[in-house]
Amino acid sequence: MILFAVIDIAGSIPVILDIKAKSGNIQPITTTVIAFVLMLLFLIGGETFLGWFGVDVPSFAVAGSFVLFFIALEMLLGVKIFKQKKGLGNVAHIVPLAFPVIAGAGTFSTLIALRAEYELYTILIALAMNMPLVFLVLRMTGTIERKLGMAGIAILEKVFGIILLAISVKLFSSNIQHLFG
């Protein structure tokens, strides 16, 4: 249940719709698999990987909070911050959707915390249970868009933009103290 709340794919619907509107298409299978692999890799070797670069988990979480902050600003203010580099093709389903929206600093930090409390296989089962829901929401973006309509999407985008902004502030404030403490 903790991972359902942290991944929060339902709460990410406005972000997903925004990314789809900007990039034109989302690849549900690819996005789901990449997010799952990133979470799996981070679960198994995240702290070690960050350690190779001299980065601790709180620093990573603070950096992730900035990314979420800018995505929230895009949603709230209607500005475009995330821009595709020419020649890369359509990679929005990877960055920022698979990482950091679905598999981001909050998810990675939670995985490390869960690893301290639960057996690895239990966390793997929880991750595996989350992925069909992630895929389903990504697959149904067109249906969700049609049902909500332009006004519904605009309202949802602003409401969840504020929520995403609050999540970024919480992620920042709960980890910044570790950097100076």
* Amino- and carboxy-terminal Cα gap: 31 Å
* Shape assignment: globular
Low-confidence residue ranges? none
What is the mean pLDDT?
A: 86
Structure overview:
The protein has helices at residues 2-7, 13-23, 28-52, 57-77, 93-102, 105-117, 120-139, 141-180. It has 181 residues and is mainly alpha-helical. The protein has one domain (2-174). Helix 2 (13-23) packs across helix 8 (141-180) and helix 3 crosses helix 5. The longest helix has 40 residues, at 141-180. The radius of gyration is 16 Å and the shape is globular. The model has no long low-confidence stretch (mean pLDDT 86).
Key attributes of the depicted protein:
mainly alpha; globular; 81% helix; 181 residues
Summed up, what is this model?
The protein is an all-alpha fold.
Which secondary structure elements does this structure contain, and how are they paired or packed?
Blueprint (H helix, E strand, L loop, with lengths): L1 H6 L5 H11 L4 H25 L4 H21 L15 H10 L2 H13 L2 H20 L1 H40 L1
Helix pairs in contact: 2-5, 2-8, 3-5, 3-6, 3-7, 4-6, 4-8
